[in-house]
Amino acid sequence: MVNSEASEVKIKAREVTVHYGEARALHGIDLDLNANEVTALIGPSGCGKSTFLRCINRMNDVIEGCRVGGAVSIDDQNIYSDEIDVVELRARVGMVFQKPNPFPKSIYDNVAYGPRIHGMAPSRAQLDAVVEASLKRAGLWEEVKDRLDAPGTGLSGGQQQRLCIARAIAVNPAIVLMDEPCSALDPIATAVIEELIEELRRDYTIVIVTHSMQQAARISQRTAYFHLGNLVEHGPTQAIFTKPENQQTEAYISGKIG
Amino acid sequence: MTDYSDPQYRAARLKKRYRAERRFRAYGLAAVLSAALILVFLLSSIIYSSLPAFSHHHVRLDIEVSSDYVSAEAPADGNYLGMVRAALRQQFPEVTARSDKRALYQILSIGAYDDIQKRVIADPSLIGSTMSLYVPLSDDIDLMLKGLIDRNLPESERIVSDRDLQFVDKLLSEERIRSQFAIALFTNGDSREPEMAGIRGALSGSLLTLVVTLIVSFPLGVLAAIYLEEVAPKNRFTALIEVNINNLAAVPSIVYGLLGLAVFINFFSMPRSAPLVGGLVLALMTLPTIIIATRAALSAIPPSIREAAMGVGASRFQVIMHHVLPLAMPGILTGTIIGLAQAAGETAPLLMIGMMAFIVDVPGDVTAKATVLPAQIYMWANNPERAFVARTSAGIVILLTLLLVVNATAIYFRRRFEKRW
């Protein structure tokens, strides 16, 4: 499933280091992520893959005592420079979390929240259109179109996660970050989300953290293997999974460590 | 060494465990029951002793509104007391001696002429007519008629003299006396005469004070809590503030009264005995409660909600206003109500700023002189007249009702906030 066509680089990480207080979580990561590809970040727990993911939309900023060094550029613009407004950045870089976390509001309001606060849909009709389009893209529309006023928290786990995806894409981001989006879901719901990710790839750049090797192999075009805060190896997914260059990578993929 | 595999040993242990659990349940139930029993006993004894205060015996008099006592030009200057006394004298033509007449007047309340005075001032055309009105009897006669003073005691041992008894018996036989709902309890301010003393002054004072307290402490407390919990950096200075706020919650309330006296009255020259100052003092006292409750409510909101909001690009302010605060609202309201209920029952700090005072007028605004319900109850309890016993209990019942209303409102609002999700 390797994307053979030459993709442009969307996200460029250079010498990214992250400290939590005194502890160093990432030791200088250099990584390029291509547009319209799914990049999977894999590695054992505590290896820094989620930390790296959260650098891309500066979600680490809110963690007490967390410092980020180096540079992350999106479209050749360093997002850690002073000119960047974090709020505006997060509208461009959507995020889906490990545990489905819909707002305790109606399904409609969940999806409409982002467009509302960014003033993207001034009229009710436009907002309705955005909500419908987002829910359709997330493959949830058919299931919820008759109960948009029902609370989002009343949906099943898989539906909630798709609602969160709809919420993230409603503000029309360029990049969608996913932090183990399927870890709380059963295999059927996981399959639905994976299909969705494949579908979303056409319009968005997707970075996904996953603990499932099979999932990484199924849905990603590129894979990056993290270990103890270092980027050990990265490349086309097929290459990583068939003939990894690094012994550590091979050990992890084949289930010897991790 | 005991052998655990021995079935007998295990059965014995199991039995022991079940016994311990049953015992524990019984202790808990006993605790709940005794608490409930004490509450029932307390409430029923207060309500029972307050009952006499809610009714009062009145006598029907045919009052001749003659121009001898009042002129149409200046109805406010009329001698209404004389008018009522003349009407009473009519019922007892045999009483002529000066001392007897004075004794006769004593069976009427001091406020017996209030009603007719109000009517005539409102409508001067009544002058010249005769009106049949129920006027209140004195507190001692009322107590005797309620059976709280035993008329069979020897005269020297009871307040009501034999002569008074004769007067009352005559009125009773003519069916001129009846018991009425004591509306004065709710419409009057304080008075030295128990039958004229009402709760309205203290109730208005309490409400005005609480309104000031709420207006000052709710926004201040919630904003301070939001700042400390969501915005402030975690450093030595904010840690110091936190410790201080927690300590303030434990400061004896009279200290706040001293502070209010020194700062609001002496330094800012605010009026004494005013609900404004009382409200400010109680607001200071309530602030730590609200801040602590609000912070607890805010920190109980799961971080996933904050992350979700930030993930779609909500600013810190939007995260708080759109998500955290609405979700924390039930908890914040609970804290506020606990604080307000505490403030409503407080007397010590108000003592220092002159709100423990005999004030007859019902306060109209927050700068008028006023007292509050608990202070009123305390002052009534100190009065020697026996009828104040029931008045005191009635005051407590009204204070409890006020607290109940405040709590019910809080529960209502909490439900509404919770329903939105």
TrEMBL record, chain B:
Main location: membrane
CC annotations in GO: plasma membrane
One Pfam assignment: BPD_transp_1
Topology of the protein relative to the lipid bilayer: Multi-pass membrane protein
Record GO terms (molecular function): phosphate transmembrane transporter activity
Domain of life: Bacteria
InterPro entries reported in the protein's UniProt record: DUF3333, MetI-like, MetI-like_sf, Phosphate_PstA
Residue intervals of the ABC transmembrane type-1 domain: 203-410
GO BP annotations, alphabetical order: phosphate ion transmembrane transport
Residue spans crossing the bilayer: 26-48, 207-228, 248-270, 276-298, 319-341, 388-413
Keyword Transport carried by entry: yes
Keywords noted in UniProt: Cell membrane, Membrane, Transmembrane, Transmembrane helix, Transport
Location(s) in or outside the cell: Cell inner membrane; Cell membrane
Similarity comment: Belongs to the binding-protein-dependent transport system permease family. CysTW subfamily.
PANTHER family: PHOSPHATE TRANSPORT SYSTEM PERMEASE PROTEIN PSTA, PHOSPHATE TRANSPORT SYSTEM PERMEASE PROTEIN PSTA-RELATED
Protein name (Swiss-Prot/TrEMBL): Phosphate transport system permease protein PstA
Upper taxonomic lineage: Bacteria, Pseudomonadati, Pseudomonadota, Alphaproteobacteria, PS1 clade
Gene designation: pstA
